[in-house]
User: Which sequence fits this backbone?
């Protein structure tokens, strides 16, 4: 590039200051007239703009990638909402990958680090395979994993704690005087299904409640399946007085079925969901739900990565974001929902429709 | 770069085929052993990887940017969910910007095109200012605008039609025999507030219904404000039998207040929202809502941009995505909600929590 045109020759040709050229070429706000002059001069001189040349020099791209397992999953979108502004504030552009939870796609993203198109990567894989681990060991750029990794993996890692989350929910239901607390779970051959099942059993034992297989119903992590599971449960155990649901969608299905069966929530049956999605505040009755801190995990992951990008050479870090229970009408009786306003303002952009929608 | 190491010299040094080197350097799936050999050889030879050198040669980055006004807005997230896979399938990485609806940020993004860090841009601004137009005219890469642009603007443009959307809702309520159809709107000094107000008035006139100022209540585009507006409306017009709400959040607030007032929905008062967010299917009763086609607008925008990137030199295109009404329990009486399943599967990733949450 050294032999090619420089900002000096462009400034001369455009008849503007070198500072102006720099501002324009770096995309900083500049008077339109100046922008046009500089762009014209740059074109005439065949100047190749030049994030590219700059990164050749610095080997930096000022880009960070976030590889999310599922772009349709509110939990990952909550992470994204936190990651984006943190990186933006630090001057990094965000490259977004959605791997559709396909391991091969995640492997491709890790391989791609060799291309040096980003300075770092935040990845939230469904599960970490040996292939992940080999590539993480050889990674050409800092990586932060949101999710669990095997002990001893030398990578910064931010994780949730669904076990404690289930515990919080069961303890809450117990504190309300409920003693027939059922678990409506997803498939047991999934990591969360297994973990939530084990956590439920532990929680009961610690509370001195008997573990009753009849109180455990396995369906899937979706609303209709959740509803069907609860219908079966009600038929088998009519006197159930509380439902711990393994995610919010299962809980929404539970509310559908309880309503149809004429069971009052929470008077007859109290219901707790998990993940604390926007849907929890929108449902009626509004849904108490365990937050696994998706937003916080995104924020922490971005901050850990920024530290590495500043050259932090410390040992790999592991941060566990503690869960918390958001109590709403489905366990606390109807009442003002402190989350409605926030749920709303997160959607302020309905305002966004102002631009697109008219 | 020509004088530096090449994939030939790396292949020699690593003792693998040139094809293998190419696969590794391009981040394609490759045996771990090969990856390690190639990476080692590349390091020893001081090979600078090299999306960078390739784009210097081709002047292409294989990246496309999407600048969304508000990363917290479900309407934009719906666009993003469609844009990302379309670009991924075409081999482009997605660079995500959230401008927080700040014009200066949008201007920066347009300026930034001069940096050539992307091959094209999709932007969804709240409103298009003169500064936008000047930069669009001088843009160094193809741009597609989601939203309205002034007549004659030479840029590909995908827009919604909220006017027809309001019409669909009012006609639907009329067809249900409702004759006291109120509008619960956002601020009239916003583009959508003004447009939806005008569309409501037109719709009534075409139906031969009198325009009654008492039936128009202006609040803001959020749930609590929507609820307050409906409370005022009920006090002033107790016999109102239908509410056209300017977005889903207003409609959720309306359901809160109607429930508290003991009005049955839809028997006493039918309610329609707008934007058809995930919240509409989660509410109870589930909310009939006008979809302004956010997802479709994102898909069309991505496809238009890809055509430009293939070198399409045709005239600027304008595509208007027609709205459609999604009828649910708030106007149709309770019943199976055909959207619940989809609302659910969009959140299959609750499954995503499988990785993070255990």
Assistant:
């Amino acid at each position: 590039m050294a032999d090619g045109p420089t900002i000096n020759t462009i400034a001369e040709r455009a008849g503007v200051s070198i500072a102006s050229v720099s501002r324009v070429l770096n995309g900083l706000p500049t008077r339109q007239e100046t922008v046009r002059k500089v762009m014209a001069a740059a074109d005439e001189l065949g100047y190749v703009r030049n994030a590219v040349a700059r990164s050749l020099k610095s080997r930096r791209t000022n880009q960070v990638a976030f590889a999310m397992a599922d772009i349709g999953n509110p939990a990952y979108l909550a992470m994204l909402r936190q990651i984006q502004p943190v990186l933006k504030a630090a001057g990094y552009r965000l490259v977004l990958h959605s791997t559709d939870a396909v391991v091969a796609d995640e492997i491709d993203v890790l391989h791609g680090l060799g291309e040096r198109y980003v300075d770092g990567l935040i990845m939230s894989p469904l599960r970490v395979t040996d292939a992940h681990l080999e590539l993480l060991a050889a990674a050409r750029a800092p990586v932060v994993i949101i999710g669990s990794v095997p002990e001893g993996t030398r990578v910064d890692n931010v994780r949730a704690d669904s076990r404690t989350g289930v515990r919080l929910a069961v303890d809450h239901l117990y504190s309300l005087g409920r003693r027939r607390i059922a678990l409506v779970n997803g498939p047991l051959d999934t990591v969360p299904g297994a973990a939530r099942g084990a956590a439920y059993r532990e929680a009961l034992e610690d509370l001195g409640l008997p573990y009753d297989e009849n109180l455990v119903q396995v369906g899937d992590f979706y609303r209709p399946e959740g509803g069907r599971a609860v219908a079966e449960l009600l038929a088998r155990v009519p006197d159930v007085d509380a439902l711990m649901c393994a995610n919010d969608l299962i809980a929404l299905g539970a509310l559908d079925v309880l309503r149809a069966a004429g069971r009052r929530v929470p008077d007859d049956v109290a219901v707790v969901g998990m993940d604390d999605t926007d849907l929890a505040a929108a449902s009626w009755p509004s849904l108490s739900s365990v937050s696994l801190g998706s937003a916080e995990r995104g924020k922490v992951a971005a901050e850990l990565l920024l530290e590495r990008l500043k050259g932090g050479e410390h040992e790999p870090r592991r941060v566990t974001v503690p869960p918390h229970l958001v109590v709403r009408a489905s366990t606390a009786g109807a009442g003002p929902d402190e989350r409605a306003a926030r749920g709303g303002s997160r959607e302020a952009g309905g305002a966004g429709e102002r631009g697109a929608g008219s």
Notes: The mean pLDDT of chain B is 85. The CA atoms of residues 51 and 57 of chain B lie 10 Å apart.
